[in-house]
Each structure stands twice: as C-alpha cells, then as structure tokens.
Design goal:
Chain A is an all-alpha fold and about 800 residues long. Chain A is built from 36 helices and five strands. Chain A has a two-stranded parallel sheet. Chain B has a four-stranded antiparallel sheet with strand order 1-28-27-26, with no helix packed on it. In chain B, strands 2-3-4-5 form a four-stranded antiparallel sheet, with no helix packed on it. In chain B, helix 2 packs across helix 3 (about 365-380) and helix 2 (about 35-55) runs parallel beside helix 4. Classes of the chains: A mainly alpha (about 800), B alpha+beta (about 450). Strand 2 of chain A pairs parallel with strand 29 (about 395) of chain B, so a sheet runs across the interface. Chain A: This is UTP14A small subunit processome component.
C-alpha cells in the first residue's frame, strides 16, 4: 500500500505541473489505472467521460460547443488528437508511405546510436567500414552450382562412411581361412531355457501337463527350490533353523577337518611313513588279538581258525591270482592305464595277505617247516628265472639294475641264513624284519610276473631282439650302404640338377631380361586360360595336350642349346660347379650313409618268429630276382656312356678327289692321314673314380620340360621358390594334423547354407575387438597396484557364491531372514 | 621296479568306424621317404589332369519360357527357388532341385524389364514395358483364386529396372529417372535426375544399404545416397555400361559390365580410375553378378559365353558355353556359392556349377581331405609349365576363338603404333612425331584460352 501511495503522489506532482501548463483544474485520483492512463488528456475529455452516462447526443453537442469556444479563444489551445484511418499513413504497397519521399541515411541511424553509451563502439566501427566500401553484394549461386557443392559434400561424407569398412575388408583379404556364412551361431544343442522361452502349450494334453506343473508350482527356470519347499522352509521357526544351522556347520567343519587330514596323509610320499603306519596298524591288530587270546582263548582260536580257513580257501581258488576274465582284460589295459595296473596290484596283495601264514609264536617245528619250504621255492624260482635266457624281464632286470641285484643277493643270503639257522635270525632283529619285508615285496613281484604268462609272451625277449637287430646290422651294411649310396646319389643328383636348372633359368631370365621386360610391361597380366579348339574329355586328351607342350618345349630347348656355345670360360665355370657338385655329393653321401639311430623297441610283437622268416625271405628275393644282374647291367651301361662320350675321329677324306676312285679303291694313306682329324680328348669324366655312379652333364629335355624356367611372380629369389616347392605337404611326410593345417582351404562354404552379405554387426565387432586389444595397453602401467583390491573383493564374492551354491538351503535361509 | 610303457593317443591308431581301413602307424623319418618333390609333383600332375577330366559344369537346363529370358531374381531365403521373367511378359517360378516350373503368371504386357524379391522372401516386384510396377506374392494362389498382384503402381513412363532395399520396405526403380519408393505409398518418396533421360539399371548396395548405383544411357555410372537430396557422383566412360553389381563383402567395390567387351571394377571412393579392367569377352557384356563370398563374379555376354573372374584378376578363370546357348542376357550366382544360373536368348535357363570339377553332394571327411590336398598341390606347383598348361586349357567354339585372335591382333597393333611411329621419326631424324607436336601445342592453347576467359570475366564485372 505504501508503494502505491508513493507512486500516486509522484504521478500527482507530474500531472499537477502539466495542469499548471495547461491551466486546468487539479485532478483527484481515487484509485485505478484507467484514470492514470488518461492522465495526459484534457479536462474536457475527462468531463466528457464524466458525463458519459448522460447520453451520446448530448456529449457530441457538448464537444462541438467546446470546439467552437476554443476556436474563438485563439491559437493557444493545443490541437486535439484525432483518430484516423491507418491506410492513409501505411500504404498497402510499401512499408511506409509516410516517409516515401525521404531517404534514410545510415548516419541518421548512427546519430541515434551516438547517444547510447560506448558499448556498441565496435559495431559502429564495423558499420562505418561497411559504409566506406562501395561494392555491391554478390548474387546467390545458381542452382547447378549449389547442387554441385551439395553433391561434393554428400559424396565426401558417404565415402568417409564407406571407408569404415576398409579395415574389415583388408582383414578378410589377409585371413588364412574364411568360413562362410560369416556370423554363424555355434552349432550343437541349445540350453533348455532358450528353447523353452517361446514355447506355449497348444494341445489339450500339453495344457493338462502344464496346468499340473503349475499347480505344483514346479520351478521351470531355477531348479534349486520349489515354492513348496520354500514355504516349508519359511514355516520352520527361527530357533530351530539356528540350531539346525549350527549342527550343519559343526558337521561340515568336522568333515572338512577329516578330509583335510586324509588328504594330507594321502599326499605324503614317503614310503617309510606309510610302512610305519601299516606296521603300527598291524601291531595294534596283533595286540588286540593277543588281548583276546589272553582274555578269551576260545574266541581267539575261533578267529585263528577262521583265518586259516580263509587262507586255505584262497590257496585253493584262483580268485585273486589275476587269472580271471577281468584280470586278463586289466592286464591288457595295464600297459596304458595306471589305474588298471594298481587294481591288479591290489588284487595280488589281497592274495598275498590271505595266503600268508599266520605268524604264530612257534609251538611246534612241524608248523615252521612248511613256511620255510614256502619261502625257499620263491627264491629258487627267482634264481631260475634269472638264469632263464628266454625271460626278458629277468634279463633286463639283472643287467640293468646291478644294485638291486646286489641287494637281491643279500636277500638271498639272508634267506639262506633263514633257512639254515633259525637261531641266528633272532638276534638280527629290526634289520631282519625290514629285509623280510623287502623279500616279501620281491616275492610278490615275482609272483606277478610268473602268473602273467600272457604278458611275458607279449613282451619280446630283449636280448634276442637286440641280437637280431645287431645281426641285421652286421649283415646288411654292405647292401644297405650301397643302396643308400645309390639312393642318396640319385637324390643328390636330382637336387643338384634341379638347382642347376633353376640357376640356368635365372641366368636365362637375366639374359632375356630386356626383351621380356618389354613384353611383360605390355601384357600387364597374363591370361589365366589357354583357350583352344580342342576339348579335354579324358586322361588321354590331357596327355595329348601335354605332348603338344612337350614338342614346343623341346623346340625351345634345342634353341637354348644352340645358344649355348661352349667357351673356355664356361668350361672353367662348369669345372668349378663340378667341384662344388662333387663336394655336395660327398656331403650328401655322408649324410645319407650315416648310421641311422637304432632304436631298441621294447615291445615288438612280431619280433619272435622272425628269425626263420628272414632267411626265407632272403631266399625268396634271391629266387625272384635270379635273372637280374643289376650290377653288371649298370657297368655295361656306364661303359657304353663312356664310349659315347669319347670324341670320334672326323674323317674328311673324299674318295676320288685328286686321284682315281671307284669300287675297291681306297684313298691313299697320305690323304687319310691328312684329312682324318683327331679331336683333342675331352676333359676327364667326373665319375671316373666313382665305380657305381654315372654322372651326365647333358641337359635332359624330358626333365627340363617339367622344370620352371623363369622365376614366378611374387618370388624375389630362386631360393624362396625352391623352398616353397621343397617342403612337402602330403601325409607321407607329415602328421595328420600338420597336413590338415597345411592344406586348409582359403574359403570354406557350408553345403546348402545361404551366405548373406556382410552386415554392420561384424564391423562393430571388429571395432570392439580392436578397442579391446588396445585397452589393456593403456591401463597396464597404473593397473598393477590398483588392480589387486577389486580383484580380491571379487574373489571373495566368488567364494561366497560358491559356498552358497554348495548349500542352497542355506541361501534360502538367508533369504528368509 | 618301475616299468615305463609308451603311451599313445588312441586317436592315432583307432579307426573311425568299423568299415574304415585300419590305421597304420607311420614313420615320418624323411630318409625313409625320399623324392618328396618328384612324388608330389606327380600327384599334382594327376590332380590337375583329373580336374580337367571331371570339369563338367553344366547341370541342367530349365525349359519352359516362350520368349527370351530377360531377367532373373534369386529367392533371398530359399536356395531352391528361382524367378525369371521373359520378353513376353511372363514370369515363372522354378524349383531348381526338381528342375520344374512351379508357377507361371502373365505379369506384364511386353517385356518384363526387371524383377527383384523382397528381402524376407514373401513377395516379389516386377516392372514391365506397360509402365507398371507390380508386387506379387511368392506363394502361388490357392485353388480357384485368380492370379492377381498384391499391389500395382501405374507410372507415367516405362521402368527399365528395379531393386529392393536389403532390410527395409523400400525399393528403387529406374527409367527416365531413379525413383525411390516406399512400399506403402503409390508415389515415389524421392526421385533423382542428373542430366540423363534413361537409366538402364539400378542396384542397392547390399552392405551400406542406403547407397545406390545406376547405369545411364549417356555412358555414365551414377552413385546415389537414398538419404541425400542429390546424386553423389558420376563417372562417364567410353561406352555404355549395361549393368553393375556391388560386392557383397566389400562395401565400396562394384563391377560394371560394359559394351566395350570389358568389365570394370571400381572403388566407389575413387571413380576416376577403375581398379581392374576385366577383359576376355569378345562381345558386349550384358550382365554381371558377384558370388556371395565376394571373391569372384560371373559375367554374361552377347558372345554366347559366361565367364568367371576372380575379383581382382583381369582375366577369367573359366569360361562356360554350350552349342545351344545363345546370347546370355542375365546371370545370377546362387546364394550358397555353388551354382550359376544363366538366362539366354533361346528361352532357356541353364544351371551351372560354379566350380566346374567340383563333386556335388556330401563328401566324407577323407574325400574332403583328399580334395584339399590336391588343391594345395595344384596351387603349389602352379608355376610348373606342364601343370600350368593343363589347368589353363579350355575349349572354345571356333567363332569365339577366331574373334579372340583378331582382337588380340588389334590390340597388339594399337600398342605398337606409337612405337613404330617413334621409330620412323627417329629414322627420319629431325621431324617430330605428330603426337609430340600435339603435345607441344597444348600449353600455348591453354594459355590463350585462359587469357580469353580473363578478358570475358573483366567485361562481365564492369
């Protein structure tokens, strides 16, 4: 209210000053804005408004009157404001019709700005600059040009977009193998949840089953607890639950302790420990038995009888003697399987335990004797076995482990001692006992061996085998070495020839260089096909085709040979290469005739019957190749070649030239001497010192036809190409897996599957991969120390989870809390 | 006593099935298997020979059209279905395994100019000489129902080609202009023109699905983006391109079939020069289609042959022809990368194997391995003259053979001409060769042109 009053007073003072100017009455304002707005008007107007209620006619008259009065009063009165039509001032055709004639100059506008503060100075300056320059604005570009620019921008944008694909395209081009379709889902059965999601029951039977399932509220997704179970769990009181939980915890703890202990004990590797443990157990048993005997001799006797009976039964039966079906099958598997072997051992141990005579305090001598007899034969057997040359195991053992043999000897001695004087045995005490244990062990071993005749049959006699192999070695060296040499030489010859040819090819390319370069530059890429009028229908056609090629190649060869006119320089070169070749050959021979490592194979099932078979085979071979005298043939061949290589005397005598000629007339001796030209003997043959080798320098066209004469494109050196050819890919030289790897095709498509065009997903995936690869590099340095904290936390969480999983009920309990 | 026994993986000695041959452990000692190179060479030779002997690419001919087959379309989801349209306005749907026509419909009056299947395979579109675009259901109408199109759009001008978007309900037609249509509307949502009045072929890019390319009658290839208001780029060639095809695995590569007997592979981003020029045909190339792996493409030509080109090679790897096959108008590569379909002038559709000597059907693992091995061997010894000779040998009909020779001579002559001229000029000594003269004249001409331009510009300004 106070504000308004102040405002009103201000207005009043203003209006009063105006009123003074206009010499009118002072106006009074009750309140309201209407009056305030009209404050500027004359009193006449106010009065008119006051009389508004009276009537419009009266008002008009009054106004006229006032006008008339004012007109009488002279020019001091201000002209009244008049309302007029807008169209007079604002024309329809231009923005302002009023100032149409006048021009607004920029300076007028600036003049208005002069009064404003200096904040707009910069704009002013700009405007002045604009004023000063006289050029007109350019016209907007033509449609064609704008379109051109638009096109350019759009094209740049799209080409940039498209360039995103470059990485993936290159990756695919470089890939060793591409499997189409590209984004395949992994084959195989899907998890049930995925399959079930979209399934709905349709048939009435299905509906029924479904409803039943729902009634029982069987879980579909999470099979841990049914709602029923959960409900029952909920029903359990808190205390009960707590007690139960405590119980469970206790049990679990105990179990875990026990397990840990057992595990620890199981992990102890010391044999001695186990031995002691066993001994302790046995002693305890004995003690018990003793106690029983003291307390209840009858019961003890019963027990003894029982044991005796069991022993008898065991000795009678073959139950634990590894002769059953199961044992035989295990025996076969024992070679590969540790567990099977262990199982067999266990069985045998059982047998031993059962058949062992009870160590009762000596009551009578009759009882002891059989024990002795039982012990003795084993050792006797042992000795026999050792002597038996047919038993490889024994042989191997004796020869391979002399230390053990020594101790075995000790044992024997002790055993003999055992048998001979009992009295001495007792004072020996602990040592004796240990020995006894050893003896028992050995006994068991022996038994096992003796009771596995099949195995022995399977196991080949070591020594015999070795002898055989040695024998072979001794016998064979002659033939083998010669064969090997031959083979090696052929190989080396081939290789050297190949290399030489390659080198020649290389040279020829260099020689031809200029001519061929021109050709190549013109034909940028050779045609991939030789198109002709003949059709290949069968293998014969292919051969014919080859024949054509051969003729052509042959012609080329001839041409090449013609080109090669032997010069002295070349001869020397040849000699040099020959030397090199010789060296190479020797090296290769060394390599090839080197003794192959003889691997003694312990298990060679076919080795037994071979002694007779070998001789037979040799005879057979001899019989089969009775007619061939390979060596003689070879020598003959070589001789022929040497003869052919010798230069022939050129006879240029012309009968009848300068003398009489005719039938029966011979040219004169002088003439013969004169015109028979003897050619200088050729350089000595390279194979003159190698009796079983033929070395020929002549280029053989039949081979050359198949040789590459030019270094193919994409290879830079002949060695590279050679290397690519030399490494074999087939299964003859490589293992299965290597062959698969080497021969993997570049593009693999699936039969009957549609290959879709590449999609954006793969692009995104590849991008993500690259990002993923990059990320650790950045973090690596800082992550070292920090990374451990969260990891620990995570592991803890994982442990908790694992524990929860192990005990679902517990989790459920937690939930109820 | 410890007995050590050698343990072997049962996979190495246990056979796969009881019918399998027994596995024999093998000693891979190289000294025991000498002559590895010659032995492998022999194997390679045998493999190449057998390949040629078994190279019988022709599988079947689908007979039934009553006029030349003008266009074909692949079914996007079914490998066994093929659509074909002929010059009498008939469209046939074929079942490839049974080699029978499943459905025939009179789609247009006059030629069926173009056809394409919707990406989902439920319907297909045809355009014809009667200025209509028709959409048809892929399934045949039921008993008693009439064969009627789902949709028909009547245009003002003849449409010469059609292609469908890879993922959306949008298709493009060409004729006097390139129109982009929404399937739901009867008027195009966008039209592109760029100074040409007839466009013969339009194709959507299958990878960057918003891009299009078209071949126009002014010897140009024009690129469009569906989202932009104007075309993107244009390249004008020496002769007209008939069709083009985008590489389905490389977003920016396309190949066009040209009237000048060649095909050109372009990088979309650099239209000034083609990447490769593929030449082997002896007449205009009419159609081209990429294999779905994007490694090869097949081209159909007026010279009655089809050729298969490796993607970046300038010469074909094989050529197919038969006595009865006339000008091949359209060609398609099946979506499983195994077959090629051709439609030709003499009303037949032919089915070819993409790899001439490939064995069809399921292969056992051992067969597959053997195949891989022989392939590897062939590749390894490909440079050896005999093997190369056998692999490259193809039979050609006499006309094409002679024509090829002729073309070769012409090409040689053209190549040699400047050389000969140079030689002649050298012999005469002083006189410059005409080509050189021309070259020397060029700069002065250019200068005078520039001067004129400047003067004109000055006038204009004043």
């Amino acid at each position: 209210m106070a504000k308004r009053k102040a405002k009103a007073s201000r207005v009043r003072s203003e209006s009063s000053s105006k009123a003074a100017k206009n010499s009118t009455q002072v106006m009074t304002y009750d309140d309201g804005e209407d009056e305030l707005l009209e404050g500027d008007d004359d009193d006449a107007v106010i009065s008119a408004s006051e009389e508004d209620e009276g009537g419009s006619d009266d008002e008009r008259k009054h106004r006229k009157l006032l006008e008339a009065i004012s007109a009488l009063g002279g020019k001091k009165r201000r002209k009244l404001a008049e309302r007029s039509e807008a169209s007079v001032q604002v024309s329809e055709f231009a923005v302002s019709a009023e100032g149409a004639g006048e021009k607004i100059s920029l300076s007028d506008l600036l003049g208005a700005m002069d009064q404003t503060p200096s904040a707009v100075k910069s704009t002013k300056k700009q405007l002045q600059n604009l004023e000063s320059c006289k050029d007109t604005l350019e016209l907007p570009l033509s449609r064609q040009e704008t379109e051109k620019i638009q096109r350019k921008v759009a094209f740049e944008k799209t080409s940039k977009d498209v360039s995103q694909w470059e990485s993936i395209v290159k990756q695919n081009q470089r890939a060793e193998q591409l499997v189409f379709p590209l984004n395949q889902e992994p084959s195989g059965p899907k998890p049930v949840e995925h399959v079930v999601v979209g399934w709905k029951p349709r048939t009435p039977l299905e509906m029924e089953v479904f409803s039943l399932l729902h009634k029982n509220m069987q879980p579909i997704n999470d099979p841990l607890l049914t709602p029923m179970e959960e409900a029952s769990l909920k029903a359990m009181s808190l205390e009960e639950a707590k007690i139960r939980r405590a119980e469970l915890q206790k049990i679990r703890a105990l179990q875990s302790y026990y397990e840990a202990k057992a595990k620890r004990e199981r992990k102890i590797k010391s044999k001695k420990y186990h031995k002691v443990l066993k001994k302790g157990k046995r002693k305890e048993l004995l003690k018990e038995f003793e106690e029983m005997r003291n307390k209840d001799p009858a019961a003890a006797l019963e027990e003894l009888k029982k044991m005796e009976l069991a022993r008898m039964e065991e000795r009678m039966s073959l139950k634990h003697q590894n002769s059953g079906k199961w044992a035989k099958s295990k025996a076969i598997m024992a070679k590969y399987d540790d567990e099977a072997r262990k199982a067999m051992q266990q069985q045998l141990e059982m047998n031993k335990e059962l058949t062992q005579k009870l160590a009762l305090p000596p009551e009578s001598e009759e009882e002891q004797e059989p024990e002795e007899t039982e012990v003795v034969p084993d050792f006797a057997n042992d000795a026999q076995a050792a002597a038996d040359p047919a038993n490889p195991w024994m042989m191997g053992k004796l020869s391979a482990e002399p230390a053990e043999k020594d101790c075995g000897g000790d044992d024997k001695e002790s055993a003999v001692e055992n048998t001979q004087n009992e009295e001495e045995r007792e004072p020996e005490g602990d040592e004796e006992e240990e020995n006894e244990e050893d003896v028992l062990l050995r006994e068991f071993d022996e038994k096992r061996k003796s009771r596995r005749p099949d195995d022995d049959a399977l196991a080949p006699p070591f020594q015999v085998d070795k002898e055989e192999t040695e024998g072979e070695k001794k016998e064979e060296p002659v033939c083998v070495s010669s064969e090997d040499e031959h083979e090696g030489e052929v190989v080396s010859e081939f290789k050297s020839l190949f290399q030489k040819l390659l080198a020649n090819g290389h040279e020829s390319t260099v020689n031809k260089g200029t001519g061929q370069d021109a050709k190549e530059s013109d034909a940028e890429e050779p045609a991939l096909l030789d198109e002709g009028l003949s059709r290949v229908r069968s293998l014969e056609d292919v051969d014919e085709l080859l024949g054509q090629g051969l003729v052509r190649e042959h012609a080329e060869d001839v041409a090449e040979v013609k080109e090669k006119i032997p010069t002295t320089a070349e001869e020397t070169k040849n000699e040099r290469t020959d030397k090199r070749k010789k060296k190479k050959i020797l090296d290769l021979n060394d390599v090839l005739t080197r003794d192959a490592k003889v691997i003694s194979v312990p298990l060679a099932p076919t080795a037994i019957g071979e002694e007779e078979g070998e001789g037979d085979q040799r005879m057979l071979v001899q019989e089969a190749f009775a007619g061939d005298d390979v060596v003689a043939d070879f020598l003959k061949d070589k001789k022929k070649r040497v003869e052919a290589g010798k230069p022939k005397v050129v006879d240029l005598t012309l009968p009848g030239w300068g003398e009489w000629g005719g039938v029966g007339l011979k040219p004169s001796r002088y003439k013969r001497r004169r015109f028979r030209i003897k050619v200088a003997p050729p350089p000595p043959r390279k194979d003159r010192n190698l009796p079983n080798v033929i070395i020929s320098d002549a280029r053989e066209s039949s081979v050359a036809m198949h040789q590459v004469s030019q270094l193919p494109f994409s290879f830079e050196k002949p060695e590279q190409f050679e290397c690519s050819i030399r490494t074999p890919t087939g299964h003859t030289w490589n293992t299965q897996r290597t062959v698969q790897k080497l021969t993997a095709p570049k593009v693999v498509t699936q039969l009957g599957s549609i290959i879709e065009p590449i999609t954006r997903d793969s692009l995104d995936k590849s991008k993500a991969q690259t990002r993923g690869k990059k990320a650790p590099d950045i973090v690596l340095a800082s992550a070292g120390a920090e990374g451990q904290g969260p990891r620990k936390g995570r592991r803890k969480a994982g442990e908790n989870n694992a524990r929860n999983l192990r005990n679902p009920r517990r989790r459920a309990i937690k939930r109820t809390k | 006593m410890k007995v050590k026994v050698l343990c072997r993986n049962p996979d190495d000695y246990v056979r796969e099935t009881t019918r399998d041959i027994q596995r024999v452990p093998r000693n891979y000692d190289p000294t025991l298997h000498p002559f590895e190179v010659p032995r492998e060479y022999t194997r390679a030779m045998n493999a190449t020979k057998l390949e040629r002997v078994f190279a019988k690419p022709f599988v079947a001919a689908l007979d039934g059209h009553r006029d030349a087959v003008n266009c074909m379309a692949k079914h996007p989801t079914s490998l066994s279905t093929l659509l074909s349209g002929s010059c009498d306005g008939e469209v046939k749907v074929w079942n490839l395994p049974t080699k029978k026509c499943v459905r025939t419909l009179q789609a247009h009056e006059g030629f069926v100019r173009g056809m394409c299947a919707r990406f989902c395979g439920t319907s297909f579109f045809t355009v014809g000489d009667d200025k209509t675009i028709k959409q048809w259901k892929m399934e045949a109408p039921g008993y008693g129902e009439e064969e009627e199109p789902l949709n028909m759009i009547l245009g003002k001008t003849v449409y010469t080609g059609i292609d469908h978007h890879q993922k959306e309900g949008v298709f493009a037609t060409c004729g006097q202009q390139v129109d982009i249509w929404d399937e739901q509307r009867s008027s195009p949502i966008r039209s592109f023109t760029w100074g040409v009045d007839s466009v013969s072929c339009v194709r959507f890019n299958p990878v960057e699905t918003e891009l299009l390319a078209s071949c126009a009658s002014d010897r140009s290839i024009i690129l469009y983006d569906m989202r932009e208001a104007t075309p993107l780029q244009k390249v004008i060639m020496n002769m007209r391109s008939n069709t083009l095809c985008w590489n389905p695995m490389e977003a920016y590569i396309f190949t066009c079939a040209n009237e000048d007997y060649h095909l050109y592979t372009y990088d979309m981003r650099q239209l000034s020069m083609p990447i490769v020029m593929h030449s082997d045909h002896v007449s205009a190339v009419l159609d081209v289609d990429y294999s779905p792996t994007g490694k090869e493409f097949v081209s159909a030509s007026f010279d009655k042959t089809i050729r298969i080109f490796p993607e970046k090679k300038s010469h074909s790897r094989s050529v197919y022809h038969t006595k009865r096959m006339q000008h091949v108008i359209c060609v398609k590569w099946s979506l499983d990368n195994k077959y090629i379909m051709t439609g030709s002038d003499e009303m037949n559709i032919r089915l070819w194997k993409a790899n001439a000597s490939e064995k069809l059907g399921l292969l056992t693992t051992r067969e597959k391995q053997a195949q891989n091995y022989s392939q590897k061997l062939k590749q390894k010894f490909q440079h050896h003259p005999q093997i190369r000779r056998i692999t490259r040998h193809r039979h050609l009909p006499r006309e094409i053979y002679s024509q090829r020779k002729e073309l070769h001579v012409m090409k040689e002559a053209r190549r040699r001409k400047p050389e000969v001229q140079l030689m002649c000029s050298e012999r005469s000594g002083t006189a410059l060769s005409p080509s050189k003269k021309k070259l020397s004249n060029v700069p002065s001409l250019l200068v005078s042109f520039f001067l004129k331009c400047k003067v004109l510009l000055a006038h204009h300004r004043s």
